[in-house]
Prior knowledge:
homodimer, alpha/beta, GMP Synthetase, Chain A, domain 3, four-stranded mixed beta sheet, three-stranded antiparallel beta sheet, globular
Amino acid sequence: MPTTFNYHTTVAWKNEHWGHLVCGNGAAMDFSAPPDAHGHAGVLTPEDAFVAAVNTCVMMMFLWACERFKIPLVSYECYAEGTKIIELDRTELFTKIVLRPKIRVKECDETRVRRALESAQKYSLVANSIKSEIILESTIEVVQ
Amino acid sequence: MPTTFNYHTTVAWKNEHWGHLVCGNGAAMDFSAPPDAHGHAGVLTPEDAFVAAVNTCVMMMFLWACERFKIPLVSYECYAEGTKIIELDRTELFTKIVLRPKIRVKECDETRVRRALESAQKYSLVANSIKSEIILESTIEVVQ
């Protein structure tokens, strides 16, 4: 039997195109749609939450992989871009997410870092739970 | 040719199991893993971001559907719970998301509200982009 865990959030409509989100782990914030879909700038949107879920999950799994692979990580930063298409029947889909991690490590074989990154993607809960193709374009720098 | 749009976020590792997230629409916050996975309480986690992406997206699409279906919405609140399983090979997957919207409308046919909710799910970008089964358990109350 596989082990199961539950995670929850609650949203509430405030007014117009504004909502308030409360997450199970305690984070809380207003949200809206993107400005080009009648929403507001400066707050979380469903699109950003989706791309953030992938981006944050792969990073957390990479930290875990670095611990397992004994990689002395110096810095990790990752720009992630999700591409949405609108089909002719007006349904929408995130077809791909490109992740561009910039990784700096101390005196470490670059191949080991690549293996850790592949491992992070393989074990990422969010990466496994989405239909979008995930493309990793990493930059690895080994520093003294 | 389908129309395409891009959405981006950036994450950066701070230290230990802490990261910082900056979203394309302007929201910015610290994040971590869930406390039961070596993370910290009180901040965003990838798991919460994933469930929030679905929950916020379906709400925004429901607001849009209410406008189209001319439904006088009084209130909308939705608890969403995502179930993760850990497979024997230790990969993880969100198998289902249960959404429990509590909807109050003014003098309106309940069937129309149900149709609007189905429409919200059908046109939700995030709902369409995930592998998890989505289960809607709605409560609709018509008030004077």
